[in-house]
Amino acid sequence: MPQPATAREVELPAGRARLSALLAEPATHEPRAVLVALHGGGMRAGYFHGRADPATSLLTLAAAAGYAALAIDRPGYGASAAAFPDGATLAEQATCLRAALRGYAATRPTGAGFLLVGHSLGGKLALTTAAGAAEDDLLGVDVSGVGERWALPPDRLARPRNTHRLHWGPLALYPPGTFRLAQHLVGPIPPREAGEMLRWPRQYPRLARRIRIPVSLTFAEHEHFWTCDHDAVHAMAARLAAPFVHTGRLAGAGHNISLGHAARQYHLRVLAFLEACRDRRSRPGPAERPGALTRRTGR
Fold this sequence. Notes:
Shape: globular
Number of strands: 9
Order of helices and strands: EEEHEHEHEHHHHHEHEHE
Number of domains: 1
Structural class: alpha/beta
Strand content: 15-25%
Largest sheet: 9 strands, mixed
CATH class: Alpha Beta
CATH topology: Rossmann fold
CATH superfamily: Alpha/Beta hydrolase fold, catalytic domain
Strand order of the largest sheet: 1-2-4-3-5-6-7-8-9
């Protein structure tokens, strides 16, 4: 029986900085595509490679399914922290990310292309990077923990109280040892990144109408940062110029989905979406109208 893929540390040149990352690849063949995972604020790439329970790792799951999985420390985190001591705006991060992916594609096989997977602030980066991108550049974008309208007043976002509940939800949603093992992943949000956070409700509509690749939006059952009822999610999806949009709600999950018991269920949905995007590119059908096939999946 083949051994499960392991994730190794790599660095990617990205303009004036180098981005640290974790990479897992199929053991016996070139990847069907590359999944690029972008962590949230105050986290690191290891968010997608949970150590408390191997079943929570997106990286090893993706590699076992034949994909390469690249979880990147966003600009301002990890190896690039010295180059961005105060962090970077979403636009600046997107420029770095595009450079890193160009360099990756020049040196490693990418199969059908890249799918961006972003959580929270990493989801905002994924959407920012996808805005204006052609399908020749990206297969699609899969986002969790990002809405359009805040569920909290601005003063709580600037100086949130009870932050553990907001980020994690009920403790029982996570495998034993999660919080101890996640300590090395958690740190302060860089100030320039934090200073831009409240602008998102104004930024998103402008970005959404420039996103012309497939999009998947997932919200946790215990999501406390974003308004994510049916009407809010439908309105968010309707703004996108994407050929199709999947929306879903994940039961038994808190904001930090990929570290919880529900992680594997979500990650399998990510891979299903990636396969749909890959098949769509290999077998193009009739022209699709923007926003077509929008649907709710899960509970």
